[in-house]
Amino acid sequence: MKAGLLLLSGGSGTRMGAPKHALPHPGGGSWGGHLVGVFAAVFPDGPVQVLGDPLPDHPDLPRLEDPREGPAVALRTWARLEATAVDRWWVVACDQVRWTPERLAEWARISEATDPEAARWVLALHDGHLQPLGGWLPDGFRALLAASTEQSLYALATRLPHLALPSDGAEWVDVDTPEDRQAWERESP
User: pTM higher than 0.85, yes or no?
Assistant: First the structure.
Protein backbone atom coordinates (compact mmCIF):
# COMPACT_ATOMS: atom_id res chain seq x y z
CA MET A 1 0.00 0.00 0.00
CA LYS A 2 1.25 3.46 -0.88
CA ALA A 3 0.28 5.55 2.13
CA GLY A 4 0.46 9.18 3.14
CA LEU A 5 0.07 10.85 6.51
CA LEU A 6 -2.38 13.70 6.99
CA LEU A 7 -1.69 15.03 10.48
CA LEU A 8 -4.28 17.36 11.98
CA SER A 9 -2.56 19.92 14.17
CA GLY A 10 -5.01 22.79 14.17
CA GLY A 11 -6.51 22.50 17.64
CA SER A 12 -6.02 25.33 20.09
CA GLY A 13 -5.28 23.02 23.03
CA THR A 14 -7.25 25.14 25.50
CA ARG A 15 -7.94 22.16 27.79
CA MET A 16 -4.26 21.23 27.79
CA GLY A 17 -2.87 24.74 28.26
CA ALA A 18 -1.01 24.57 24.93
CA PRO A 19 -1.57 23.18 21.43
CA LYS A 20 -1.40 19.37 21.60
CA HIS A 21 0.82 18.99 18.54
CA ALA A 22 3.62 20.86 20.32
CA LEU A 23 3.41 19.19 23.74
CA PRO A 24 6.52 17.21 24.72
CA HIS A 25 6.26 13.46 24.15
CA PRO A 26 7.80 11.19 26.83
CA GLY A 27 9.74 9.42 24.08
CA GLY A 28 11.25 12.71 22.87
CA GLY A 29 10.11 15.40 20.48
CA SER A 30 6.53 16.63 20.30
CA TRP A 31 3.23 14.79 20.16
CA GLY A 32 2.97 15.61 16.45
CA GLY A 33 6.60 14.62 15.90
CA HIS A 34 5.92 11.27 17.57
CA LEU A 35 3.16 10.50 15.06
CA VAL A 36 5.39 11.53 12.15
CA GLY A 37 8.03 9.12 13.49
CA VAL A 38 5.51 6.28 13.86
CA PHE A 39 4.36 6.79 10.28
CA ALA A 40 7.91 7.06 8.90
CA ALA A 41 8.91 3.83 10.64
CA VAL A 42 6.17 1.95 8.76
CA PHE A 43 6.08 3.96 5.52
CA PRO A 44 9.57 5.49 5.15
CA ASP A 45 8.85 6.91 1.69
CA GLY A 46 5.30 8.05 2.40
CA PRO A 47 4.45 11.73 2.05
CA VAL A 48 3.50 13.70 5.14
CA GLN A 49 1.16 16.67 5.12
CA VAL A 50 0.40 18.75 8.19
CA LEU A 51 -3.04 20.33 8.29
CA GLY A 52 -2.76 23.13 10.83
CA ASP A 53 0.15 24.53 12.78
CA PRO A 54 3.77 23.55 12.03
CA LEU A 55 5.42 20.95 14.25
CA PRO A 56 8.23 22.34 16.41
CA ASP A 57 10.48 19.35 15.64
CA HIS A 58 9.51 19.10 11.93
CA PRO A 59 9.00 22.73 10.82
CA ASP A 60 9.84 21.98 7.17
CA LEU A 61 7.02 19.48 6.57
CA PRO A 62 4.48 20.58 3.95
CA ARG A 63 1.69 22.38 5.75
CA LEU A 64 -1.74 23.72 4.95
CA GLU A 65 -3.65 26.28 6.98
CA ASP A 66 -6.53 24.90 9.01
CA PRO A 67 -9.64 27.09 8.75
CA ARG A 68 -10.29 26.40 12.49
CA GLU A 69 -13.86 25.22 11.96
CA GLY A 70 -13.40 21.60 13.06
CA PRO A 71 -11.86 18.53 11.44
CA ALA A 72 -14.61 18.03 8.82
CA VAL A 73 -14.10 21.52 7.38
CA ALA A 74 -10.32 21.09 7.60
CA LEU A 75 -10.52 17.84 5.61
CA ARG A 76 -12.78 19.44 3.01
CA THR A 77 -10.31 22.31 2.65
CA TRP A 78 -7.39 19.89 2.27
CA ALA A 79 -9.28 17.83 -0.31
CA ARG A 80 -9.64 20.85 -2.61
CA LEU A 81 -5.87 21.22 -2.94
CA GLU A 82 -3.33 19.12 -4.77
CA ALA A 83 -1.44 16.45 -2.86
CA THR A 84 0.93 13.62 -3.64
CA ALA A 85 -0.97 10.67 -5.07
CA VAL A 86 -1.16 7.73 -2.67
CA ASP A 87 -3.59 4.85 -2.23
CA ARG A 88 -4.71 5.92 1.23
CA TRP A 89 -4.12 8.67 3.75
CA TRP A 90 -3.73 7.90 7.44
CA VAL A 91 -5.73 10.79 8.90
CA VAL A 92 -4.71 11.23 12.51
CA ALA A 93 -5.00 13.92 15.17
CA CYS A 94 -2.15 14.91 17.44
CA ASP A 95 -3.98 13.70 20.56
CA GLN A 96 -3.80 10.07 19.36
CA VAL A 97 -0.31 9.76 20.84
CA ARG A 98 -0.50 6.10 21.86
CA TRP A 99 0.23 4.86 18.33
CA THR A 100 3.34 2.73 17.87
CA PRO A 101 4.91 1.53 14.63
CA GLU A 102 3.78 -2.02 15.43
CA ARG A 103 0.15 -1.01 15.94
CA LEU A 104 0.14 1.18 12.81
CA ALA A 105 1.64 -1.63 10.71
CA GLU A 106 -1.04 -4.02 11.97
CA TRP A 107 -3.84 -1.48 11.38
CA ALA A 108 -2.54 -0.87 7.83
CA ARG A 109 -2.42 -4.62 7.16
CA ILE A 110 -5.97 -5.14 8.45
CA SER A 111 -7.29 -2.15 6.50
CA GLU A 112 -5.70 -3.23 3.25
CA ALA A 113 -6.89 -6.83 3.68
CA THR A 114 -10.49 -5.78 4.34
CA ASP A 115 -10.57 -3.09 1.62
CA PRO A 116 -7.93 -4.04 -0.97
CA GLU A 117 -9.34 -1.67 -3.61
CA ALA A 118 -9.28 1.37 -1.31
CA ALA A 119 -12.98 1.87 -2.01
CA ARG A 120 -14.04 2.82 1.54
CA TRP A 121 -12.87 5.02 4.39
CA VAL A 122 -11.67 2.40 6.87
CA LEU A 123 -12.60 3.56 10.37
CA ALA A 124 -12.28 2.05 13.80
CA LEU A 125 -15.21 1.10 15.97
CA HIS A 126 -13.74 1.52 19.45
CA ASP A 127 -15.81 0.97 22.60
CA GLY A 128 -18.97 1.30 20.51
CA HIS A 129 -17.90 4.65 19.03
CA LEU A 130 -16.99 5.32 15.42
CA GLN A 131 -13.47 6.75 15.27
CA PRO A 132 -12.77 8.48 11.92
CA LEU A 133 -9.43 9.93 13.05
CA GLY A 134 -6.77 7.27 12.82
CA GLY A 135 -8.63 5.77 9.87
CA TRP A 136 -7.48 5.18 6.30
CA LEU A 137 -9.02 7.59 3.80
CA PRO A 138 -8.76 6.61 0.12
CA ASP A 139 -7.04 9.24 -2.01
CA GLY A 140 -9.84 8.74 -4.53
CA PHE A 141 -12.28 10.31 -2.04
CA ARG A 142 -10.73 13.77 -2.33
CA ALA A 143 -13.37 14.98 -4.82
CA LEU A 144 -16.18 13.62 -2.61
CA LEU A 145 -14.71 15.37 0.41
CA ALA A 146 -14.21 18.64 -1.46
CA ALA A 147 -17.86 18.63 -2.62
CA SER A 148 -19.27 17.81 0.81
CA THR A 149 -21.02 20.40 2.94
CA GLU A 150 -20.89 18.39 6.17
CA GLN A 151 -19.77 20.28 9.26
CA SER A 152 -19.43 17.23 11.51
CA LEU A 153 -16.63 14.70 11.13
CA TYR A 154 -19.00 11.89 12.08
CA ALA A 155 -21.53 12.98 9.44
CA LEU A 156 -18.80 13.34 6.84
CA ALA A 157 -17.41 9.86 7.57
CA THR A 158 -20.78 8.13 7.60
CA ARG A 159 -22.02 9.81 4.41
CA LEU A 160 -19.04 8.51 2.45
CA PRO A 161 -18.58 4.81 1.70
CA HIS A 162 -16.94 3.49 4.85
CA LEU A 163 -16.11 0.36 6.73
CA ALA A 164 -16.08 0.30 10.54
CA LEU A 165 -13.76 -2.34 11.98
CA PRO A 166 -13.90 -3.32 15.65
CA SER A 167 -10.67 -2.08 17.21
CA ASP A 168 -9.81 -2.31 20.88
CA GLY A 169 -6.26 -1.01 21.11
CA ALA A 170 -5.17 1.82 23.38
CA GLU A 171 -4.04 3.80 20.32
CA TRP A 172 -7.69 4.78 19.77
CA VAL A 173 -7.94 6.52 23.14
CA ASP A 174 -7.39 10.25 22.74
CA VAL A 175 -5.43 12.25 25.29
CA ASP A 176 -7.79 15.21 25.66
CA THR A 177 -7.41 16.55 29.19
CA PRO A 178 -4.60 17.18 31.67
CA GLU A 179 -5.87 14.17 33.64
CA ASP A 180 -5.72 11.97 30.52
CA ARG A 181 -2.18 13.21 29.93
CA GLN A 182 -1.06 12.40 33.49
CA ALA A 183 -2.55 8.90 33.25
CA TRP A 184 -0.96 8.28 29.86
CA GLU A 185 2.46 9.59 30.95
CA ARG A 186 2.34 7.28 34.00
CA GLU A 187 1.73 4.27 31.75
CA SER A 188 4.37 5.28 29.15
CA PRO A 189 7.68 3.42 29.30
Answer: yes
